[in-house]
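Quick check before the chapter quiz. The format below is the same one you will see on the exam, so make sure you can read both the input and the output lines.
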Amino acid sequence: ILAKLGINTKLIERDKEKCEKIAESLPHTLVINGDGTNIDLLKAEGIETIDGFVAVTGFDEDNLLVALLAKHLGTKKVIAKVDRTNYIPILEKIGVDAVVNPRITTASAILRFIRRGKIISLTLLKEGEAEVIELIVSPHSKIINKPLKKANLPQDTIIGAIVRKDEVIIPHGDDIIQPDDKIIIFALSSDIKKIEKIFDGGEK
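Here is the expected output.
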């Protein structure tokens, strides 16, 4: 996929046999047999000049170390995978641009599937205590043609943006919601059901 987009990709793998298999599967990727935590190797491959670096080894500690090295050596964007959620704040503090946690990602996908209405994306925050949802307003929603300040949303809910066709609106209390608007919402997980009912037309 990256090759089709014209993005040059390098992949570092310690296991020589895995390198050979990866090279066969990804003919447009430069596969390097080496240790991704080796500073000399990273410098030799020009890590300070690359646009993005992704640390996805099977070990959280290695990913944390390599992400730190990449940021220290000047990589523009760094992404790291960690399984232990208590590492996420550490990675954020050292300047890692994005952290991927398989458990949270999987939970988000499951919740998106089981949620009602026209939710098109969902992300968990603070280990599931809060959520960011992106939804499309139903034509039957009770919130249509009402100012946001009268929407009766839960107290800690924040409407981050309204996307209307090609226009992005930073909302205020007097803004009016229209059918098929795309809404970005920050809310506590405990309030999501009520929010869904309001935007999907189920609020009484």
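If your answer matched, good. Confidence is low (pLDDT under 50) at residues 109-117.
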